Every structure is written in C-alpha cells, then in structure tokens.
Amino acid sequence: MGELVKTIAKALVDNPDEVFVSEVEGRQSLIIELKVAQEDMGKVIGKQGRIAKAIRTVVKAAATKENKRVVVEIIQ
Hints:
Blueprint lengths: L1 H11 L7 E6 L3 E7 L5 H5 L4 H15 L4 E7 L1
Parallel strand pairs: 2-3
Antiparallel strand pairs: 1-2
Family: Belongs to the KhpA RNA-binding protein family.
Subunit structure: Forms a complex with KhpB.
Pfam families: KH_KhpA-B
C-alpha cells in the first residue's frame, strides 16, 4: 500500500525526491503517512482536498482486497 501512495504522490509533485512514505501497522488497520516538500503540499491536497480524497479512495479500494482498513495521513 505504501508503494501505491508513493507512486501516486511522486507523479503529482515537482520534487519527487522529497516524497517519503511510512507505514504504521496495527492489528486491524494500517496507517500510511505521506510527507512531501512544503511547496508541493498544495498539489497533493488539491482544491478543497479533492486530490487527497482521491488518493484515499484508490488506496481504500486496493485495501479492500486484503480485508484491511487503511488510513492515509498527509503530514508536514
């Protein structure tokens, strides 16, 4: 799941070298933390959070196959 988020984020930003993804796994859920450069934050979030919502939707669909709950957090 982390690789999926990383691939999507790298395609969106101007500084793909500054995209970092970390995964925190629990019993029933997986938290994916996405960190990008400050100037790329708007490109990942999008207007009114539309791009962030789309990323979460794609990851959620992929996680459904594995019967896991995935949360994507965009951090600074």
